[in-house]
Design a protein that fits this description.
Two copies of one chain form a homodimer. Chain A has helices at 13-32, 40-47, 142-145, 175-179, 192-199, 224-229, 394-401; strands spanning 128-132, 138-140, 150-158, 182-191, 207-212, 219-223, 232-237, 240-241, 251-253, 266-272, 287-288, 294-295, 304-309, 321-330, 336-342, 350-351, 353-355, 364-372, 377-385, 414-417, 423-426. Chain A is of the alpha+beta class. In chain A, strands 2-1-10-5-6 form a five-stranded mixed β-sheet. At the A-B interface, helix 1, helix 2, strand 1, strand 2 and strand 3 of A face helix 1, helix 2, strand 1, strand 2 and strand 3 of B.
Chain lengths: 429, 429
């Protein structure tokens, strides 16, 4: 860490002169003429040699009543993989994790997974029904729901199929594609248990069925115990209304569990005494093992992490010296206790720095600040959660579950950083 | 809290029959024919009586690579007050606080305050210079800055003029206008003290000048002590790049202090031994007292709160019974310790529930769940911070500072809730 960043312009005479002389002129004017005129005018005339935006008035307020990113960020978008699914209505897009920092995913960049496209719901017409093994079946309007006590929580949401294509080896060249079916959002909603209490649950109740109002009418069975523990019926994400593709106006929040259970466009909750054996918990979202048997109801998303930069879509462009390695870690079991980073494919590990709030069942942001000597790296991260679970290698996962699986791949990811700073998705044995 | 929400549709036969019979049919089919067919088909046919969105495939993934809110949220936008300023380039827009929940302000809704419009900066051309009383003047590119260790923090940012028009009585009918020059965002950036250390600060250094690259070249003097304490040079907000109107690609973060000091489009930091006496800290952003003297360098934003709903733009529409009172509290001194709510103009107070993370110099969300009997209310909130400061009444402020002030009005706000649920901005004496 003793070497100064190479790209810094102390040794670049043209650039140095251009900026430094100009601004120093401005500063001198400020010191001498503070009362008469601000430094701005002097400084400005020199800075404009290179900075056009300093010469003209920019856009005024409410040019965009709802703001949008800079035109220079046009490549920071969700992307899909066109060959992956037959249609875009039953498909997935991926969060550009390699472009983000911190733990919050902006609403416009949260990955999408639809089974029948995005329902475009008019909230005044939306209803949530609670029925089945209850004393009083109820139908709630949106304003009804907003009268219950509200809670706020930051939670990650991960599709069970995230990293699914990595079971059989390194497939996709970028963490947006290998790990981008995850996001982390601050939710506002009401407790599902309060709505159930309002209806009155019968003593033989053990399961819920949650159903969406989309064309696929997505349905999943959820054990009552989870519903009474920490499930929310949410109407806001990151402060504002849910986005249409995230279930506007109402989504079930099932902290730490498979994203597919977080029913979007939530319209119905039925209380029963056994699971419903829906398509999405029998034919799909089960894990076929090597012996032909399938794991079912594998709800919890296991401890996992990935380095988001450098990564194939975020190569090292600055050459040797000071560099920041950063990534995300999360676990359906609670908080992340520790993240280790390896530069040599798992032979040696260094504990990374977790920065920002450490919240249960939320993303954790980690950093390792290194002095890169320009040699090749095999970057890996390994997360450990507060329940003591350690993120396994992909080979450990395969040994336990075979290679038929699509879901629940939380194996350690390897990025191969070459001497020129470019990065590839590889596997180490 | 014993009364059930009135708008709930248990007593509304048409709606009840429409939804309940349909979905129960679906559920019965599911229980009987689970293996053969999902419940969806049966339930769907009845629900379509009222829900068109269930009949058609919706938009597919990446219909919007960068997502946008629902068409039904088109009224959730920043707004300005056209008569307030001569132009929109030197003006302000307001955060729609009454529509939001939780503590995070979505990037698209963060209020704007420009003095020369929004600079539209190409990040590859942007530079940050550090010079003055330093050993080595430096010019940083954006990639240079991203090689320093990063930190993440959630901070509120409040314009010193927020609520400024309320000094002389109730002026504007809505918390978007009375209190909307505030937002709360998760920032990612590097420590200003690390950049200063890289340049090497001379022993006689006491002050910094921070300058923006906009047409106004906004400039403020900042004491070195604050810079070395908790200032950040930030490049991301809520996970993604700063928005243009929030300083893209680089903004100074000055936690807890006047928003005007959080220099946007940050291009220059000069180190000196005394303040520069810029326009924005002499003619503006000072507080003229009744005796003709002015308070200067009043940086810290004092403890403050406001009820965001109900409020003039968010009336009670649901009639009597269960109701949620909610609002925001913040303090430049650190965490909020307690928020009290009064229903009767400050005669009696009840401690509200603070929900969500309690972070230093960040927004705090509070709730009071009440059973409204339909009588008129004089709603107030009063925040107390961890330093022990108590939010004053407007009259207490006036007694201390006279009525010449524009800035630093943290007085208690009063909303008059009428029997029909509409709300007005009033003052109580």
């Amino acid at each position: 860490m003793t070497e100064k960043p190479e790209a810094k312009q102390t040794l670049e005479p043209t650039s140095r002169r251009r900026f430094l002389s100009g601004a120093v002129g401005g500063a001198a004017a400020a010191a001498g003429l503070a009362a008469a005129r601000p430094a701005v005018a002097e400084g400005e005339s020199v800075i404009t040699e290179v900075q056009d935006w300093n010469r003209y008035l920019g856009d005024g307020v409410v040019s965009r009543p709802y703001g949008t990113p800079s035109q220079y960020e046009a490549n920071v978008v969700r992307r899909d993989v066109e060959w992956l699914t037959a249609s875009r209505q039953s498909s997935v897009s991926f969060t550009p994790l390699h472009e983000l920092d911190g733990i919050i995913t902006p609403n416009g960049l949260c990955f999408e997974r639809h089974h029948g496209g995005t329902a475009e719901i008019e909230p005044s017409q939306h209803r949530l029904m609670v029925h089945g093994l209850v004393d009083t079946p109820l139908v709630f309007t949106m304003p009804d729901l907003m009268r219950f006590p509200r809670e706020n929580h930051v939670y990650f949401l991960e599709c069970a199929a995230n990293s699914g294509m990595e079971w059989r080896g390194a497939q996709l060249n970028g963490c947006q594609y290998t790990h981008g079916m995850v996001h982390c959002v601050a939710y506002t909603g009401v407790r599902l248990k309060d709505l159930l209490a309002e209806a009155g649950i019968k003593t033989n109740a053990k399961w819920l069925l949650a159903e969406g109002a989309d064309a696929a009418a997505m349905t999943r069975s959820i054990p009552l115990e989870k519903a009474l523990d920490d499930c929310l019926v949410a109407f806001k994400m990151n402060g504002e209304a849910l986005r249409p593709e995230q279930g506007y106006p109402l989504r079930l929040v099932v902290p730490g569990w498979e994203g597919n259970m977080w029913i979007k466009w939530l319209r119905r909750i039925e209380v029963g005494d056994q699971p419903w054996q829906q398509r999405e918990e029998t034919s799909k979202y089960t894990d076929l093992l090597a012996n032909g048997k399938a794991r079912r109801f594998t709800w919890v998303m296991d401890v996992k992490s990935v380095i988001t930069s450098p990564s194939p879509q975020a190569p090292i462009r600055h050459g040797r010296g000071r560099a920041v390695i950063t990534g995300l870690a999360w676990s359906g079991n609670g908080r992340i206790k520790r993240v280790d980073v390896s530069l040599d494919g798992g032979r040696n590990w260094t504990t990374a720095r977790i920065d920002g709030p450490s919240l249960s069942k939320a993303m954790h942001r980690f950093y390792l600040d290194i002095d890169w000597d320009g040699s090749e790296l095999l970057l890996q991260s390994r997360a450990i959660d507060e329940a003591g679970f350690v993120q396994p290698t992909k080979n450990e996962l395969r040994a336990a579950r075979g290679e038929n699986s699509i879901y629940h791949n939380n194996g350690i990811q390897t990025w191969y950083v070459k001497a020129d700073g470019t990065v590839e998705n590889v596997e180490v044995s």
